[in-house]
Amino acid sequence: MNSKGKTKSVNVNPRKERALLAGVEIKSRARKSWNVQASLTELAMLASSAGAQVVTVKSQRVQKRSSSYLGKGKIEELKGIIESKKINTIVLDDELSPAQQRNLEKLLEIKVVDRTALILDIFAQRAQSREGRLQVELAQLEYLLPRLVGQWSHLERLGGGIGTRGPGESQLETDRRLVRKRVDKIQSDLENVRRRRGQARQNRFDKGLPVVSLVGYTNSGKSTLMNALTRADVVAENKLFATLDPVTRKMVLPGGEIFLISDTVGFINKLPTSVVAAFRATLEELRDADVLLHVIDVSNKNVLAQYESVVELLKDLNLVNKPTIHVFNKVDLVSPSQISSYEFTFKGIASGYYESFESVSISAASSLNLPDLLELISNKVTAKSMI
Ligand SMILES: Nc1nc2c(ncn2[C@@H]2O[C@H](COP(=O)(O)OP(=O)(O)OP(=O)(O)O)[C@@H](O)[C@H]2O)c(=O)[nH]1
Ligand SMILES: [Mg+2]
Predict the structure, then answer these.
(1) Would you tell me the crossing angle of helices 222-230 and 370-386 to the nearest 10 degrees?
(2) Relative to the alpha carbon of 295, which ligand is closest?
(3) Pick from 109, 236, 275, 291: CA 20 to 30 A from residue 252's CA?
(4) Which of 42, 213, 224 best tests ligand 1's pocket when mutated (most atoms within 8 Å of CB)?
(5) pTM (2 d.p.)
(6) Which residues contact residue 208 at a Cβ distance below 8 angstroms, ignoring those fewer than 6 apart?
(7) Are 323 and 380 in contact (CB under 8 A)?
């Protein structure tokens, strides 16, 4: 639309969502590393990755959780913005309870999307493999189930009467039954897919090749590094969750050692529990790794908080006892003094999790210092084969 309100450009996508983003910081739970602004910056990237146009971002400090997520005054303020800026979607920076979502929808009269639904939407757009698609659908259905109940329960609360008898309740039962049936079917399909993949993995192990796995925050450069090391042609993009499906390639070190290197789904702060549950098998494959390469984007302003989020998740998955190389990536974008200061800080954080700390600074995009990284990998792989 031009300023006179007439449609002129042919490139405008009429269905593009015009989104308002909002988050709250609960005073008592405020975290030093992830403040609400940092989290909202990331939410904006997620929203753009999902294809929405971010029009405005708002935040609020609150005392405690409220039944409509945001406070009354803030909701009034947002109503005005929604009207004047023609917003048609609001995206919230946390997973909302079904009741919070319903309340906000009633008050704002636009589509309400929470952080979990947004992440699930991106995953659904990216999933390519059969296993990936099944995992995403499973996570989506688990997210939907309690909200399905919510869609009908407001009729019950009206206390019966005209319009609340019959189809509402039985429709809910039918919907629930259908969703549960689909969940069962997906779970059994997933088991079959995984059994087959487990066999393929077994074959690899029979060959005794060591496995090096890339882990790290989304967009840190894992796939770029995979491509730089193996010419694997994995999609690497400035998008969150560019990779969902694991990819494994063979690699030969300068000394002739052969090993497998694998790239997998990235991590993010507030990763929804439904996603962790659905992707657990993919993440648990990291247990087969002999060495983990933890790729860290040192050019990101929030890198320390990102690091902590990843290490927390690795700890939950029992992976902090694995031989790990910390790979500081994108060093082409930061000064050497900044890198040394990070090195010191990371060492401090890591000491709470790891017995020793090994790191290397590289640029995957411009293949800087890759020989140093290869040497570290080689030492670890050799150390293992000599045990
Ligand atoms: N300047 C610079 N950019 C880099 C470097 N490495 C990666 N990038 C860019 O960072 C972005 C993300 O890279 P990916 O390799 O897709 O990141 P990823 O960790 O695989 O991300 P997910 O698959 O989303 O988890 C891309 O735009 C890359 O070009 C680097 O060393 N320097
Ligand atoms: Mg990737």
Answers:
(1) 80
(2) 1
(3) 236
(4) 224
(5) 0.86
(6) none
(7) yes
